[in-house]
Specification:
- By secondary structure, the chain is mainly α.
- It has two domains: about 150 residues, no CATH class; about 80 residues, no CATH class.
- Helix content is about 70%, strand content about 5%.
- The protein has ten helices and two strands; from the N terminus they run αααααββααααα.
- A two-stranded antiparallel ribbon has the order 1-2.
- Helix 3 runs parallel beside helix 6.
- It is flat.
Length: about 260
Amino acid sequence: MSFLPAPLEPVRPALLTRLSPTTRLVVGTAWLAVAVIAAGPRVSFALSLVAVVLLVIASGLPLERVPTRLAPLWLAALGLGLLTVLVNPSNGDPTVVALVRAGPLRVTGPALEAGIAIALRLVVIALVSLLVFATSDPTRLADALVQQWRVPYRFAYGTLAALRIVPLLAADWAAITAVHRLRGLQRRSPWGRAAEIGGSLLVLLVSAIRRAERMALAMDARGFDTGRPRGVYRPVALRALDAAALVVGLAIAVAALVLAAI
């Protein structure tokens, strides 16, 4: 039993699954940088449209699960966009024509444009992150970072181990709450439940520390602390497809910058 949803993984071979994780990481970083730098909603809308097309035809992900997995980000984008519209300084400028007027509330064109731009930036961040990280196994990402970018072994595989621990912590939390329920220790009052959550978190912290110690000892026993060069069991090579994807992805980023300058 786990509070975490099932991992969102590719269910069929696709273009993005054949690329090296570092290639996707470079292109995704460039797209996010362009979306943050560019002013106005046009660039973010164009990038989100391209990301949706790639998600549908080139990701291999189960499309029916994507909306629910990204639901918190959709709500965050809507809320942040609405807040930006309401607090924009142009709403208080009487020289700017109001699109919506309800009592003291004024919504102007610049405020609406700024809100849409903020919301679309969050949409781009959500879609690009999904295309970069959900289309390959975390182990392959760690292998690519070590082999191609020379990231230290302890950092890359330590981060991978930490990601692997997260589902185990969710299972531990479910087991702790089940034990409390079985022993009749669950409280009904809000203050009692708050105190119960505090005690459960303490148990979870102790369990996480013990598991981290065992994992650190296991990594040291496998030579991650020797500082010597290690062999490669799962080689991750850059191919012509990666070069083509890198050129096309960076060209899209440059085209988005040109669109922002028009």
